[in-house]
Structure prediction request, 528 residues.
Amino acid sequence: MSGRLPWVLVVPAVLGLAFLVLPLAGLLVRAPWPTLLERLAEPQVLQALRLSLVTATIATAVCLLLGVPLAWLLARVSFPGRRLVRALVTVPLVLPPVVGGVALLLVLGRRGLIGQWLEATFGLTLPFTTAGVVVAEAFVAMPFLVISVEGALRAADQRFEEAAATLGASRWIVFRRVTLPLIAPGVVAGAVLCWARALGEFGATITFAGNFPGTTQTMPLAVYLALETEPEAAIVLSLVLLAVSVIILSSLRDRWVNSP
Amino acid sequence: MFRRLSRWAIAVPVALALAGLAGCGSGAPATSGTSASASASAGGGAKEVTVFAAASLTGTFTELGKTFEAAHPGTTVKFNFGSSATLAQQITQGAPADVFAAASPATMKTVTDASLASAPTTFVRNKLQIAVPADNPAKVDDLKDLTDPKVKVALCAEQVPCGAAAVKALDAAGLKVKPVTLEQDVKATLTKVELGEVDAALVYKTDVIASAGKVQGITFPEADKAINDYPIATLTKAPAGDLAKQFVDLVLSPQGKDVLTKAGFEGP
Prediction:
């Protein structure tokens, strides 16, 4: 397709881009460049970064394990109340993350509905543990994966699945051998989005898992606390988080997420 | 194929936008006018005083704001409650405030150093207490009990005033406590106690009183070594001018002191 670019689209597009990118430019301008390397070398920074990367990755794995089947259920199986279930899946998206954290405490906390039983039966408590961080991140990030995968499933041509079924494949075989390869780009895109959301998660994490260096203090928590006393340190920490996410997301986009 | 996709093409960005909005709401301090009708009914120029105050003053200052509005018909007191450090930053970045009441001299100093306020007065002091859940499951009764590894303890992070005070008090007592979490502010710390997630926490006496029934407060002698001064000042660029000074006068008056001591604050 060629021809003149329609300005009604180009002008808002450029404005939108500026709106998204300018705050990042602000961070770059205000960054304390002369002391940057020195601040980065601090062990707490690396500790928080490592914890963020590890928990976001595990949370994404959990979301894939539970979210892909959930998306399949919503897209391929018709059952009463499906609309309501779909709306419920997106609740963590609209819930303020801090409220999500409180809700998690009420269910999985030491005196929570399930948490109480977990502690009594297995001696397991989630709040204030790294596993708790993963739970908080997965709770907030899973809808991103489910929505992307369900979108991909709805867009995928079902005739391939039908053909496989007529050839005698069971629904599980159809899903594994036909559907999954067909929607792979959608799954990857969803996983990337989910990972990015988990990496930046703040509210649910600090509320449910607390904040302790090495166990539950992820980068966003470190940024928030640094902001209380040392805005410059907060900028440095934000830059690290920003650089890591941009590098990973852009490399993934080129390799995997090129298809629509 | 694309027609099927289109509904999602709309739904996904909308959902993402909502998620973004929700995220913003959690961190930003809430600005709340206590009485919108008072200013509306005043003929001519409605007057407004904007007070930036530490989160721990929410209850008492809201009450004093109503007293002030009653004494000055046609005037509205608007509050911005939040972490003192955040408020100080907002003021130095040019937020249009008339009065600043901080929970620590250090945060007030950021503002006076920028020549945006002068001669702050200490109007109250706040002391730490040990807060335990109403049923005190770990049977905590003094500061030493917090060193028991079986007792789960929450402290404020050292970057916020209640955390700095907790470190001072524990140092004064010569005790080493390993908390399970370092919370971002005193209310978050107290919530962990209210929900029974931790067995004890160090918070302000005023916070314990505000959550009476849900938590129990235990006084300890070392708290005297870590008293927090609350300074208040009118800002040099106060848009409300004289009214700002009158509000500070109310806070410093016997009437103001009465409200503040009832909430658990101590006189300067």
Notes: The radius of gyration of chain A is 21 Å.
